[in-house]
From TrEMBL:
Residues 425-500 form the THO complex subunitTHOC2 N-terminal domain. It is found in: Nucleus. Keywords: Coiled coil, Nucleus. Residues 5-243, 276-423 form the THO complex subunit 2 N-terminal domain. This is THO complex subunit 2. The keyword Nucleus applies. GO terms for biological process: mRNA export from nucleus; mRNA processing. It holds the Pfam family Tho2. The keyword Nucleotide-binding does not apply. The lineage of its organism: Eukaryota, Viridiplantae, Streptophyta, Embryophyta, Tracheophyta. Residues 754-938 form the THO complex subunitTHOC2 C-terminal domain.
Length: 939
């Protein structure tokens, strides 16, 4: 014993060999019992576990005896009369022997008590009791008196309890503390962690998982020590890169985060697979060490960025000798890194977040890791996060408490206390974003009046919570078991309308909201033939871009729709100024979400699917009544009009829209769109056809000035324009000649239709707009008068304070700018109508002159042109009447206006009305009104 207990620091290899020789001599000389001697050696090793001499001495004894001797020691402490816990040194000794493979884990495990099944049964009963307590949180006591309930409601200040779950957990830890002393398997697990033997510790974690061993503070702290040790080298690299980013970005305009990312990528960061096993075992209990949690997040981020850098540089291909994380292929390493990070987030980081009281910094660190993943992976993690932790009492308690506090706050949330209660909501959401935000969304679905105060209260949320909120909204949309239409089958359910309105207001106000997930959901739904959720797209466009689809236009608004962009905007902007900075930013965000730079672009797929769904609504209708089908058709058609208007306005210059949209041939023959829908999409592209030899004459303007044709030649022979009108879409695409477009037009209708129509007339009719035929001079003059009146009202204000003068100056500049724009656009509009009319005058003679069957001109013209377009929108209805009037005023050969009205009223009107939806019938009525206005003056 004296020899064994000498100072371990003085031991050298020679001294160790001499000591072992002396011990052998003593055993042999005095004929000592080897087992007793082995027992003494083990006891000395237990007292000096850091003395390396024992690791050289123990192999001289039989291995089979070691497990028996240690088992006898464990059994000794199992006796009732001993009444003493197993000393920790014995656990550490056993763990060292197992680690050095001197004894087998299973051979010593058989001697430990209590039996696993008994321990599991006892813990399950304990856990069930705690789950019952957690489930009772927030439940209404039906035995309570009315006075008690009213007293609860009359509480003055609203308070939130962020520590109730932790208090419950503390009580459980105290209650389970004797278990750690009496359960020898848990003690052995602690020993393995103490000697850094993760291999065997991981095996015991797997066996004892039903006992939730990490709940014990001693085991948890030992596990945290191993995690800290595993990430120390990687964290040094990340830490150094972080400080380098500050040095590099000082005095420069480079974003510090980008510099930090590039610095991390420049240094290879690798992590052992054991770390992710440790994080999985730690589970939600990493909340106990927030500093370590943040270190883990930073290391995981550096790990993934480093893997991305290896793929970008192609290190594996350039240098096959480099083996990254066990993989020669950097792509396999990146795939493995992503899988590991997703596992760490789902099993440890996200569950830990909901137990940390109101710490947005931790949430931001987790988001820095989450943000590296695509939204599909993030949403999957959110779904697993919610389901996997339902059986953990402290997590359930945290959720129930958060749900109760959220409901209590929402009952009192108003404009007056928005700042105070909004911060309380944010504090709850920082810890339990899923539960809090889901509860809020449920309340909004039931109470639409809550949308405005709730949206204002969300200004305190973090980026992670915004991302969770989008997942919650999409999940609520996809959740089955709820009707999205009311019982009448016509109107949208209140919850869906409330959810759509809430989402529109939220995305408009907060630029952090990501929209790609919702757009992909809408695309997937349209692929399934379901378009009810398009109401969300309508709300987004209305709120973020201020493009509102309105069927019931007033006379003034409808007249303004024939005007310039400024006039149309002021007629339908509902008080929002054109150059509103917030509106411009939100419009650009919506556009960039549909057309991201490095992600799949959904703008065109969404457009084509909406257009296809419009045609399929009637074909695939399963509604019992025709009115239900017509309502769905009108709703989808309105979304299509609104979406196309948004794309045309948001994509600048117009060439960007033309480059994005498929060709007219593909729209009709590849995507099988109706001609009227195809022309709606392609009409802005047609206006980019340009006359060769002139840089500023676009179709449908007359190019007589560009070709030195005198205006006196209006009655001369018609000129062929199709050969010199070209659409140049840039170097990446082949130019399109007008004659090629006419060839496509010929394939859009049956061959017999061209007996009474010409492709030139058909293309002209569908390519022009109301802006090309009519100048709403009264509306221009009215808006100009309003601007003059506004200027005069500003000049009459008597407030001469500095702030008022500054505001007046800005308002004057804004009004004057609008006034100048309207005046200029009126002049351009008049020139445009004159030029278009001149072109039509050139082309009118050939529209029907080559048609062999002129007897069916009016019927074919109504069927192929007028009826499809006059029922398309209110401005189109007016356009059709104006186009007929233009044909009449130009004296178009073979077109009989009286015969046209006769066929319209007497032969086709009645069956046409029977085929119209409610909105289409209104547009048809507007067309008839405008047509009969013309005929009224002839009587």
């Amino acid at each position: 014993v004296t020899l064994l207990c000498r100072d371990s620091e003085a031991s050298t290899q020679n001294v160790s060999a001499a000591t072992i020789g002396i011990i052998k001599s003593l055993i042999g000389h005095f004929d000592l019992d080897p087992n007793r001697a082995f027992d003494i050696v083990l006891e000395c090793f237990e007292l000096q576990p850091d003395n390396k001499i024992f690791l050289e001495l123990i192999p001289i004894f039989p291995k089979s005896h070691a497990s028996q001797i240690l088992g006898f020691k464990f059994q000794y402490y199992q006796r009732m009369e001993v009444n003493s816990p197993v000393p920790f040194g014995l656990y550490k000794l056993t763990a060292l022997l197992v680690k050095e493979e001197f004894i087998d884990l299973d051979s010593i495990y058989a001697h430990l008590l209590p039996n696993d099944d008994d321990a599991f049964e006892h813990y399950n009963a304990f856990c069930a009791k705690r789950l019952d307590e957690a489930n009772k949180i927030g439940k209404i006591n039906l035995a309570a008196t009315g006075k008690d309930l009213m007293d609860d409601e009359k509480q003055g200040d609203v308070t939130i309890d962020l520590f109730s779950a932790l208090d419950m957990e503390t009580e459980a830890v105290v209650e389970r503390f004797p278990e750690l002393e009496n359960n020898q398997t848990l003690g052995l697990l602690t020993g393995f962690l103490c000697v850094d033997d993760w291999y065997h510790a991981h095996i015991l974690f797997g066996r004892l998982s039903p006992l939730n061993p990490v709940e014990h503070v001693q085991i948890c702290n030992s596990l945290f020590r191993l995690i800290e040790k595993s990430i120390s080298s990687a964290y040094d690299i990340v830490h150094q890169a972080h400080f380098q980013s500050f040095g590099s970005s000082s005095g420069a305009s480079i974003d510090a985060m980008d510099v930090a990312n590039s610095s991390v990528r420049g240094s290879f960061v690798d992590l052992p697979s054991e770390l992710f096993q440790m994080l999985s075992c730690a589970g939600p209990y990493l909340y106990r060490d927030t500093l370590l949690l943040q270190k883990v997040c930073r290391v995981l981020r550096g790990y993934y960025l480093s893997a991305l850098e290896r793929v970008g540089n192609g290190d594996g291909a350039l240098n096959p000798e480099i083996v990254i994380g066990g993989n020669r292929d950097p792509r396999l390493h990146l795939k493995q890194a992503r899988s590991r990070i997703e596992e760490a987030l789902g099993t440890c980081l996200l569950p830990s977040l909901q137990l940390i009281p109101a710490n947005p910094a931790v949430g931001q660190e987790i988001w820095e890791v989450m943000n590296l993943l695509p939204y599909e992976a993030r949403y999957r993690l959110y779904g697993e996060w919610e389901k996997d932790d339902e059986q953990i009492p402290m997590v359930l308690s945290a959720r129930q408490t958060a749900k109760l506090d959220t409901r209590r706050i929402l009952k009192r949330l108003a404009k007056e206390n928005l700042k105070q209660l909004g911060r309380m909501v944010a504090k709850l959401a920082h810890a339990n974003p899923m539960t809090v935000l889901r509860t809020i969304v449920h309340q909004i679905e039931a109470y639409r009046d809550m949308i405005t105060p709730v949206v204002d209260a969300f200004k305190y949320l973090t980026q992670l919570e915004y991302d969770v909120l989008e997942y919650v909204v999409i999940e609520r949309l996809a959740q089955g078991g709820r009707d999205k239409l009311k019982d009448d089958g016509l109107n949208l359910s209140d919850w869906l309308q409330s959810l759509a309105s809430f989402w529109g207001h939220l995305c408009k106000k907060y630029p952090s909201m990501e929209l790609r997930g919702l757009f992909q959901y809408l695309v997937n739904q349209l692929k399934k033939g379901q378009g009810i959720e398009l109401v969300l797209l309508q709300e987004l466009i209305q709120q973020m871009a201020n493009f509102q689809y309105t069927e019931n236009l007033t006379e003034e608004q409808l007249d303004a729709m024939a005007g310039s962009e400024t006039l149309r905007y002021q007629a339908t902007s509902f008080g929002v100024t054109r150059n509103n900075k917030a509106l411009i930013k939100s419009t650009n965000r919506l556009r960039d979400s549909l057309l991201p730079k490095d992600e799949p672009k959904l703008a065109v797929p969404l457009l084509l699917l909406i257009a296809q769904h419009r045609s399929l609504v009637v074909i695939n209708a399963d509604a019992p009544y025709i009115k239900m089908v017509s309502e769905q058709f009108d709703r989808c058609h309105g979304t299509l009009l609104q979406y196309v208007e948004f794309l045309c306005s948001a994509l600048t210059p117009a060439l960007a829209y033309a480059q994005m949209i498929p060709s007219l041939h593909d729209l009709v023959h590849l995507y099988h769109l109706d001609p009227e829908v195809a022309f709606l999409i392609y009409r802005p592209v047609m206006r980019l056809f340009k006359c060769q030899g002139s840089s500023d004459v676009f179709w449908p303007l007359d190019d007589s000035y560009a070709t030195n044709i005198s205006t006196t030649n209006l009655d001369s022979e018609p000129t062929e324009y199709s050969g010199n009108v070209v659409l140049d879409l840039g170097s990446s695409k082949k130019p399109i000649i007008w004659s090629d477009l006419l060839d496509t037009v010929r394939t859009m209708l049956p061959s017999k239709a061209w007996n009474s129509l010409s492709p030139d007339l058909y293309a002209t009719f569908w390519g022009l707009t109301l802006y090309d035929l009519y100048v709403p001079r009264n509306r221009y003059e009215s808006e100009i008068s309003k601007q003059h009146a506004a200027l005069k009202a500003l000049e009459e204000l008597s407030d001469n304070s500095s702030s008022a003068i500054t505001k007046r100056k800005k308002d004057k500049e804004r009004i004057q700018e609008s006034l100048d724009r309207l005046t200029s656009e009126l002049r351009k509009h008049e020139e445009n109508v004159t030029s278009v009319r001149r072109r039509l005058s050139h082309e009118k003679d050939k529209w029907w002159s080559s048609c062999p069957d002129t007897s069916k001109i009016n019927m074919e013209f109504l069927q192929r042109c007028i009826f499809p377009r006059c029922t398309f929108s209110m401005p189109d209805a007016v356009y059709c009447a104006m186009f007929v009037h233009t044909l009449h005023s130009l004296g178009t050969p073979f077109f009989n206006t009286v015969n046209h009205i006769d066929v319209l009223i007497c032969k086709t009107l009645q069956p046409m009305i029977c085929c119209c939806t409610e909105y289409e019938a209104g547009r048809l009525g507007r067309f008839l009104c405008e047509t009969l206005k013309i005929a009224y003056y002839w009587k």
